[in-house]
Every structure is written in structure tokens, then in C-alpha cells.
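Limitations

Structures in this collection are predictions, not experimental determinations, and the ligand pose is part of the prediction. Treat each record accordingly. The example that follows, with magnesium ion as the small molecule, is included so readers can see exactly what is and is not provided: the inputs are given verbatim, and the output is the predicted complex.
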Amino acid sequence: MTRRRITILGATGSIGQNTIDLIKRDADAYDVVALTGAGNIAQLAADARALNADVAVTANEDRLDDLRAALAGSGIAAAAGQAALTEAAARPADWVMSAIVGAAGLAPGMAALEQGATLALANKESLVCAGALILETAAKHDARLLPVERIVITASGGAFRDWPLADLPNATLAQASSHPNWDMGQRITIDSASMFNKALEVIETREYFGVSPDKIEVLVHPESMIHALVGFHDGALMAHVGPADMRHAIGYALHWPDRRALPVERLDLAAIGSLTFRAPDTDRWPALRLAREVMARGGLAGAVFNAAKETALDGFIAGHLNFTAMAEVVELVLTQMDAAGGHIDASMTLDNVAAADHLARKAARDIIAKRAG
Ligand code: NAD
Ligand code: MG
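Predicted complex:
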């Protein structure tokens, strides 16, 4: 049997580690081409050795010597920096997991598509920033569109779904970094509490499926067992039900079009008893309102929104912004850049996306500095 050549971008993260868990269970079926990470050199090197990867790459240029040392004697090549990440993604592979967090995942993901790999796209920021480009590049691997009338994206509500609104400005980093149902990277966990994660998913859904924004709904579902619903023209709703375990989605993408047995819990619905739902509250989660504005604007507004969000999140993590100020900063950046014109209306090329991203980060940093000063 020919082995499938696999690359994992963001291998040391939550999605990356779940992907590696699945690969290790059937290691003979795969040839691992490249693994990438950032600061966690020990994990990156250990996995590269365990899976006998051709190359391991850290995003951090200043960690190249550490990575080399950790791989000494293994015969595995080491590289570092943004260009090396993209080069690794461009190495011939059959299947590439895109699980870098943030807009940093865009260029490597594009490189993987360009070399003809099937891209398993966990990095939702790619679609938010440059949906049209991604789909154009992926055209030959494109998914079929479903005759869907509405798409309902569920959200657990994150850490603060039951907090009094007045307490939200005082939420701490530790409180925002703990998710009631899912074990994920820190950034997406905080984005779940603020619902910026759901905002990204709404925009991602619009870009990927090409459905109009009014057909995309968000539903708060605290148990996180229904992951999404689609509604058909006849009024039927189909729900995807399963345990809160990302190996489900990753395994689906890894084995598609087959459905193989996966090492995930089997739900006992009788024991669970009941599932609950609530309408999302945009006073609690202004990110959901901002997502609607971004979709209405289109073009590079997604790149601006994501970059402002990443910068505001950096500000919250660093202790420069309180929790509710993140959405205020993002809204200000959107308004400023919209008023400045041009940037948001420019055509979608990777260069224009990068320029909009750069301008939005700068605008967000300026706003944050002014608020602090
Ligand atoms: P994580 O923080 O656990 O891991 C991020 C990975 O990206 C790590 O390998 C890290 O080394 C790498 N990385 C970080 N900054 C980088 C940079 N500047 N350049 C290159 N590499 C960098 O994140 P995660 O929870 O695994 O999420 C990864 C992506 O998957 C995100 O886009 C997230 O929205 C998406 N996603 C995650 C989940 C989940 O359950 N965790 C579910 C759906 C989608
Ligand atoms: Mg999700």
C-alpha cells in the first residue's frame, strides 16, 4: 500500500496534537513530510523523531539552534522562520493539516494548496482573511455545494455565558482561558469567551459555502454536543451530534471520503438526558454583531477584522486591555479603516491582504496605546 504523505502545520498545538494522535495509531499508513511549530521545540522535535519526519520547522528564527540540537543525530532537517514554514508547506504532500493559529497560517496554507495537496483547514482565519483567494486556489479540490436553506452554527457560550454583564469588564486572563467544554489552544479559548471565535466561524461559513449572511445563524448550546445544523427547503433540520472531541472532525478530514472508526467517546443520550439552547445575546457578545458588519462590507474587511482581533487579543493577554475593550478596539479599527476607504475595497491578492492586516494591526496598537496612556 502506498503511504500517504502528510504535513502538519501547527503540529505542537491543540489541533496539531490531536492530528498526531490519530496518525500515531496507524503510523505505517503515513509518511510524515513536515511538522511545524513555534516556541515548543521539545514537543516539535519529539514528534518529528517519533514520526520520522523529513523536516521540522519552527516559526521562531531565534530557536533554530535549539531545534538543531534537539534533532541531532536523527537525520531530520531543521529550519526556522516564515519563509521556511511556507517552504515546508510547499513540499509535495497528499494531505496537509493547516492548524497554525491566526493570519500567520494563510501563506503556508496557500503554499500547500498550490502544490496540490488536500488541505484540512482548521485555520479559520485563512477563510476570514482571504476566502475568495483560498477557494480559487482550491478550485480543483472544491467541495460540492449542498442545497441548504439555513446553517445554524452552535456555540457553547464560552467561559462567561452565565456571568452578569456588569462583571465582564473585570474578567481575568485565567478566567477567560478556561473553557467549560473544549480543551483548545489559549487564543481560541479566549475567543470562545468573547465569541470572536464564533464570529470568525460565521464569516468562514459565508466564504466557504457562499451562502448569504442572513442564512447563517448562531445558536447558544451550552452542552456542545450538537456541533452544527443545516436546514433544508422542506423545513427539516439535520444536526451533527457527537462528543466534544476535535479528533472527530480531524479524522473525518483525514479519512474522507471514507468514514473510519475513530477513538472518540460514544454518546449515551439517555444518560445525557437533555440538551438546551438559547438565542445569542449581542450585548454580551458584540463580536457577533461585528461579524455581520464585516460580511456586509466584504472584500478585505475580514482581514482587517481578524488582524484587529488578533492585536486586541494580544493586548488582553498582555494585560493592556480589559476583556470587553477587545470588541471596542476591533469596532474602532473597522470604522477607521472603512472611513479611510481604499484599503477595504482593494482587490483580494495576498499582498493586499497582508497590507490590510498590517494597517489594521497598527491602527489597533495605536488605539490600545492611547487608551493605556
Ligand atoms: P494552539 O494555540 O493550540 O496551536 C497553534 C499552533 O500554531 C502551534 O503549533 C504553534 O506553535 C503555532 N503557531 C503559533 N503562532 C505561530 C506563528 N506566528 N507562526 C507559525 N506558527 C505559529 O491553537 P489550536 O487551538 O490548535 O488552533 C489552531 C487553529 O485551529 C486556529 O486557527 C483555530 O481557530 C482552529 N481551530 C481549533 C479548534 C480546537 O478545538 N482547538 C477547533 C476548530 C478550529
Ligand atoms: Mg468551533
